[in-house]
Amino acid sequence: MITVPLSYNEIGPDTLSRVLKSYAGRHHEEIIRDLEQKLSVVTGSPNVLAVTSGTSAMHLALQVAGVNAGDYVIAPTFAYVATVSPAIYVGARLVLVDSETKTWNIDPVLVRRAVEKLKHEGKRVGAMVVVHNYGVPADMDELAAIGREFSVPVIEDAAESFGSTWRGKWTGTIGDIGVYSFNSNKTITGFGGGALVSSNADWIAKARYLAAHARSNLPYYQHEVVGYNYRMSPITAAYVMTQLQIMPLLFERRRSIDGVYRAEGKKQGLIFQGILELGGFQPWLTACLLPGSLLPKNVLDKLNSAGIEGRRLWKPLHAQPAFRHAESHGLALSSHLFDRGLVLPMGPDNVTPPAVVSEVLSALK
Ligand SMILES: Cc1ncc(COP(=O)(O)O)c(C=O)c1O
Q1: 186 alpha carbon to ligand 1 midpoint, in Å?
Q2: What is the atom index within ligand 1 of the atom nearest the CA of 133?
Q3: What CATH number is attached to the domain comprising 194?
Q4: Collapsing DSSP states into helix, strand and coil, what is residue 164?
Q5: What is residue 61's three-state secondary structure?
Q6: How far is the CA of 267 from the centre of ligand 1 (A)?
Q7: Tens digits of per-residue pLDDT, 11-48?
Q8: Of 58, 272, 293, 342, which cross-links 86 as Cys (Cβ 3.0–4.6 Å)?
Q9: Are residues 216 and 75 in the same domain?
């Protein structure tokens, strides 16, 4: 039986019921609108759209950023699949780029090389997607500079980095448009749901229109283009609100667990995902490489037999059959991360940090 899950949020029916009661007699759209306002305050982004998932947010982000079928989209190969699937939905072609050695996020040097090559070949680069893997911020100075220089929109996939910062600004709000996820295992959850943020009010207005079946503002049903059913449910919005109320506690809990893993794990030879000086890390999960000849599978088997969950690091997207046709740039590091790394569990959100880490660290020994 698993007693320390990777990342588990207990459902809090009482807090949910309190929020729902506070909206009794009001139109349920108000819950979603209020959540969007709260997210705007919390993230510092002036424009927010609440949607059904991080994946749908990414699908909308690509479209409002102007990515068309046949365009090239630059994305990390070391990432979760949902980062890139929406690029395929819109008919774009993926260019998968390896990580840099410190943060294990997309390497700006390789991104520049990829953009220059594509431009030289006369190909249109529709967007660059940046992921802050496991909550560790990517080098947004370099990546945003490349985006500006080559007029390529930068889409930040901040699904795993809600609360992390770059130069003090929330990840997701630094590029041209940003994506958050509130799925079941995220730090702040709605057991589903996501959000889109941008300083570009027109983009968010367009995404809002597309997310509600592209219905024109007329007294009858009129649709000039094909849209989607991507609006967030009010129940999900209410749940995300309950989580925002306890956000400092949820954040602190993960920071504390990550801190002990790093301090104690270092003594056992683990190598941790690095954080750049300008990055503020709000951990989703703690990612590390194993020392010596230890293999992730053997360590995970050991942890599992002690009731502890862990996961291998992302299997690179270039090695996934689904993306075998994608162009790629420099793949050695992401392959090494997959071969040698794992993520350590955060456990259930109602269990204290010492209880989680003591079990995991003793099993790791
Ligand atoms: C990096 C990344 N992008 C996108 C997503 C998709 O979010 P969702 O599960 O809400 O669709 C996730 C998480 O699932 C993720 O980790």
Answers
A1: 9
A2: 1
A3: 3.40.640.10
A4: coil
A5: helix
A6: 32
A7: 989 999 999 999 999 999 999 999 999 999 999 999 99
A8: 58
A9: yes
